[in-house]
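dude i think i finally got it to work??
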Amino acid sequence: MTDPDLHLAYAVRWRAGDARPGKHPARQAGIGGAIHGVRPFWQWPDARRIDVRRSITDPFETLMVRQMENTGSITLVLAADLSASMAAAPGGGHLPALAAAAGRSAQRAGDAFGFIGFDDTIRPALKLPPTRARGAGADIAARLTAASPGHGATAIADLALHLPSRRCLLLLVSDFLLPLDLLAGALASLARHDVAPIVTPSETALPRAGLLRLRDAESGRTRLLLLRPMLRRAWQRARAERRAALDALFARHCRPAFHMADDLDLAALGACLCGA
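look at this
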């Protein structure tokens, strides 16, 4: 079971377009909050918010009114790679807890929460259209706990077809062991949304040397490998180059990635999602 006290902080730098009350700065002006701007009285006839100082100093003697900032709600969608490589990796087991925390936090903020599970196809049983229903995150967490892993993750290219038409915050969780050209095309198709990649660790730490039995999570094939110091250094270099290539790709298309450790650190992830 997931901890009911866990939550995930997040924030957006764009203005919410939903008229429902929420915690995010909205496009529409409101009656409270911070000052959004100053407009002539004839454009915003609200005598309660006449800005005397700006009116007196206006060279055209225009009566000016303070326009206050409103707040609104957004849609938070968690899209998760459910391939066999994710299930075998250290971070894959944290998906239920992440889904529960994200759903609970969205509900507290008045936001809608949705979920899309994918491998080489979009998984219908693991897809939740955006909803404000209480317990949506816990429901998805239970489904994830009972789900079997799939093969591949090529349906990442189809995510845009299953997202709301209005801009949303998309948490995209994967080990991203995909061809870079496929990933680039997928991110380009998601350009209208605010995409936050969450990269899960794809393998455990390597020993310094010795005989390793490697298993491909997708194919199930195993292989014995003698890990020598030179091979270990080459392996580490390849991992660093792959991470740099991913980070460069994310920098062109979306938010910087959050690279998970073996443990799920919701505080660190929240700080990243809030821009700290």
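The chain has a mean pLDDT of 84.
im so relieved honestly
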